[in-house]
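Lecture notes, unit on protein representations.

Consider one protein chain, 415 amino acids long.
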Amino acid sequence: MTFNLFTLLFLMAILSYVVVLLWLNTRQTKAVLDSFDKVPDEFSEKITLEQHQTAADYTQKKLILNYFEIVFSAVVLLVWTLGGGLDWLDGFWHTLTNNILLVGVGFIISLMLIGALIDLPFSLYRTFVLEEKFGFNKTTISTLISDMLKGFALMLVIGLPLLYAVLYLMNEMGEYWWVFVWLMLTGFSLLMLWIYPSFIAPIFNKFKPLDNPTLKTKIDHLLKRTGFKSDGVFVMDGSKRSSHGNAYFTGIGKSKRIVFFDTLLKGMNDEEVEAILAHELGHFHHQHIRKQMIISFATSLIGLALLGYLITQAWFFHGLGMSQISNHAALVLFSLTLPVFSFFIEPISHALSRKHEFEADAFAAKHTNADDLVSSLVKLYRDNAATLTPDRLYSAFHDSHPSASIRIKHLRGKQ
């Protein structure tokens, strides 16, 4: 197996990636411990010291688990690449068939299954130990197995044909195959935005129309004031898996729908729920979803164009431990290593996301009472045991939402 200059760059990238992630975790740990004995002043009336310390303990436990995950994932990546794991798996499939498309599909699907098995212990610990300890887990073993089987079935029905189509285009469409793959994936993404709310999400959760007449009247008035049309307002049985609360907006066109977790509705009054919905409508009003889609499609085009170049470079394959050049190997190598090389631009995308959150908050403050949104946010931070004092740099790399203090101060300024 031949290593080259790119191998050295890859090793340097992994080392930088791991060191920075571990360093950010230590900063976050210090920030949480420094404020452990005192609730920030702006939250002292709504959050007790005990609740604040529980959130700190929860955050620390997640960080400890994440230390292991960071190091373990880096080792696994090295084993797959420079350790020869991918090369062996590719050779194994070549012994089974001479059809290059079937080799590619088998190679990628088996890699995904092995990856899921490797990640399973962490997932089980997170759900049945960490989340259970802090009272958030509601998932049963039967629900977990059911989710895994449903996910596997969807991969066979949707993922397998899509993967075959991608590899077919890569093999058959010549030098500019990446344009055709991009067009297909873009079309598929738009189709899934339309199909997912009505056909795929109900496979995993139950969605019922909101049955609170008073709240529904408030919501109807809010929708009319903001000029928003949707397929309906639904309540999802989030309590089936977790006690964490949330709300989201999904779908495009006539399939747009607003979804509240049942866990969120249990802890909020009608005015707070209306304020949360106004925030979600703010994302729609400012076309954040459309902007994010455009950015995502542009980024994927650039990524595929880059892959179109790398796929012709022997040093790319050999530098990452692959002895044979192939389209499916290039696709996997690119997917596995991209997070390591692109990690340092994460603060840019998260900064844009936080800007969108501020805009959505401002919209909500304009169309509902800002105090109700502040109250609902404090409850969400409290009930989800979210830390109130995150480290600034840690948030820059990891958080798509502003920290609690900054977000609420910003809202107070809108009154």
